Amino acid sequence: MLVTGPAMAATGAFAVRAGGFQGEALVSAEGRLLVAPDGTSLMLLGPDRWYRSDWYKQSGHGRSPRSQWFDDEGRLLHEFAGRIRYDDRLQGSDTLWRVDISDAQERYLGTGLADAQGRVHFAPTGEAGDWRRLSRDRIVWQGRNGSTQFFSLDGREVLRIDAPAIWVGGPFPGRQAYVICADRETATCRVQDESGTVVLSGDFDEARPAGGNGWWLRRLDTWMRVDAAGARVDQALYQGAALWPHHRNSAGADDDAGAPLEVRRYANGLDSDTPERGWLLQDGRFVLLPASASGMIVDYCPGRWLLRSKDEREDEVIVDVQGRVVGQARSLSFNVHPVLPWRLRNAYAGVGAAVLDCDGKVLFEQADVASYRAAAAGVMGTLAGEQDPRLWLDAGLTPHLMPPGLRLREDHIAPPLLVLDGVEGNSHLYNTALGSVVAPAFGSVEVLAADHLIFLRDGRYGMMRADGREVLPPIHAQILPLSAERIWVRQDVGHDGAWKTRVALIDGSQNVLAQRRFESGGVSRVPAGDGGEGVPGIVEVSFEHANVEGHTYRLQQWLDRDGHVVASAVHCRPQEGAQGDGKGVLLGRGWRVDSDPKQPCRLPDAVMQALQDRGGR
């Protein structure tokens, strides 16, 4: 057993991938063994939830598969006598995954939906198909053989459509009704609710709600409005896009909806009527779109659309879902900001470049700027007559103009720090809070954060603070900052023929809290998939001891933010053995686990000393 360092408060758990073991262990941040590595790989499903499958338990008939779920304390929350394999998360759901399920005899049962606790909310079906989130309270299963089943969120089947019938549309917001058609073009379609009641049937190809209990009905490319009984409420006809009969146009998740349905209205239903461009709304109204905007309709913002004009001299208008004009935006082209609710207009035909809101209001405009380009935390602007961006707008739209000869690097922005490229090919660090270049010609960028920069110069890494102070010179092979007060570094130390690797943990005052020296190795964070986000202070240090009593020992250690050992692993291999041969030992504070308990690996004194050694402060 290995005993090093004081205990600390539990802050999470992480999976340990140790050589020589088939499975993975779950270890707490304070070094307790929570789940032994006697199964297979652990999978992190979410905060405080772990899962593993293909774990075999001895039974009266031999071994049988088991699936298990644990929390961060290693408590077994649920066990399933069979195998559940998690696939992708169900699109649009924060709690459900697609899962493939087999029983205890390993017979495949099909694909269902399960949560992070192992509860199967939607039982598997034996046929091939796919699950989809359809609306806030409905999920659909579409089988490859043509059957379609609709479920409430508690797993209750509310409707089933068997082939050869076709699901065309629904359910709709506020109406749990579905449009179902036969697979023949000449057959009728019906609107049916979840009780099985047919509320409408007739010779149409698609139906959409039209206020109250009415409907918009489409036959080929022509729409009409009818009441709950299917009788027309007026003579108007509405011509839309030409679609195939029974085209599955409205069968999609309700959050996939784009612009309202665009049509041309013929007020008296006659070809001689003057067509009027507008939208059909779910409340049963037809709304006219501005006559001046006769060009294409472009998605502009959520709930906002840009109506192009065929005449470039006229302003384009922004309308809401009711067709009301909320603003104007002369814009030959615009860029969408991926994070902020801004639209970036480029200059053309006397119209200046600008940053606009979703109603077309100018938020920022500067006469000498020709174009804007979005960056994750703001906007880059290029001045007229220049090729590269030199103006930076932060999230508060505060402008920062970089010195002449320097340009912004889109891939290296972490406000208040910006990396600039110079015409001479050097990189420079700019601090917007200080309004100046704080580090000219520092080398190249490895990592940029809001409070520090890790740079590469002459093949070695260094680190500087946001004010440009070089706190670590470029003599390192690796720099891994956990915080301003905890930084891991790796260096090659020694001389020709006697080089070693030194890994050290230092604080903000450059004091060495822990270190290791070995032939080769490195330091890394615990991967996110192994729980690293829940234990941000834990790192893995790996190194080797070769030719010790005829064996090679690969050592792994997981250390906390103060350099104390949380857990260690040793992979013992004969020197002539293959990479996968050998045995594993997992050590912690007061415990030891061997991959082969009957013939465990013996750890020589030199290996134990390497595990115990903290190096010195």
UniProtKB/TrEMBL annotation:
It comes from the Bacteria. This is WG repeat-containing protein.
